Amino acid sequence: MGRFAQWRGMVLAHRHRLGDALRRPDEPDDPFEPTGSLNRLDALVEGFAAGQPVRWSLAGQPRPLPGPVDAVAYRIIEESLTNACRHAPGAPVAVRLRYDATGITIEVRDEGGGPLPSGGGTQGAGRGLLGVRRRAERLGGTLSAGPRAGGGFTVRAALPAPEEVAE
C-alpha cells in the first residue's frame, strides 16, 4: 500500500505535465482546465503528501487575491512541489505563504536532493520554473530559485496584490 500511495502521489503531481508537453510554449493554458487557486491548496498538498512529507504555513491575514495572482501563486506552488518530488524524492518540503499590505510571498523549500541539474530546472518546453518565473514577472512580481547552502532547494516568489485602501 505504501508503494501505491507513492505512485498515486507522483501521478497526481505530474498529471499537468502531459498537457504541458503537448502544448507549444507560446500557447495559453487550456481554457477548459480548471484554473488553480489557493482555495485548493489543501488538495494540492494532499496529492503530494502521499509520497513526500509536505507541510504548509500561513502568515498575515489571508484575503481574496485578484484572479491572475491567485492562479499564478497556485501554479508556482504546484511547480515547486513537482520539482521537489522529482529532484528530492521523500525529502520534507515546507510551503510558506505570507500575506502583507503589498501582496503575497510564497516560499517552497525542500530539505534534500541537492541542486537541480544544470540550468536550474528551467530547460524544457517553456514550462517549469522558467514558465512560472515569466508568469510572475508578467504580474509585476519576482521569482527566484536555487540550491540552499545547507542542502536542498528553495523557490521564492513575491506577487503584487495591494490591499484595497478604504476611503
Task: Label this structure with key terms.
167 residues, alpha+beta
SS content category = alpha+beta
Strand content: 15-25%
Strand order of the largest sheet: 1-2-3-5-4
**How many H/I helices?**
4
Inertia-based shape = globular
Question: What separation lies between the terminal Cα atoms?
Answer: 57 Å
Unreliable parts: 16-28, 114-126
Helix content class: 25-40%
Could you characterize the architecture of this molecule?
The chain is of the alpha+beta class. Helices cover 37% and strands 22% of the residues. It has a five-stranded mixed sheet with strand order 1-2-3-5-4, with helices on one face.
Blueprint of the fold:
Blueprint: H1 2-22, H2 41-49, E1 54-59, H3 67-87, E2 93-100, E3 103-110, H4 128-138, E4 142-147, E5 153-160
Parallel strand pairs: 1-2
Antiparallel strand pairs: 2-3, 3-5, 4-5
Helix pairs in contact: 1-2, 2-3, 3-4
Short description:
The protein is an alpha+beta fold and 167 residues long. It has helices spanning 2-22, 41-49, 67-87, 128-138; strands at residues 54-59, 93-100, 103-110, 142-147, 153-160.
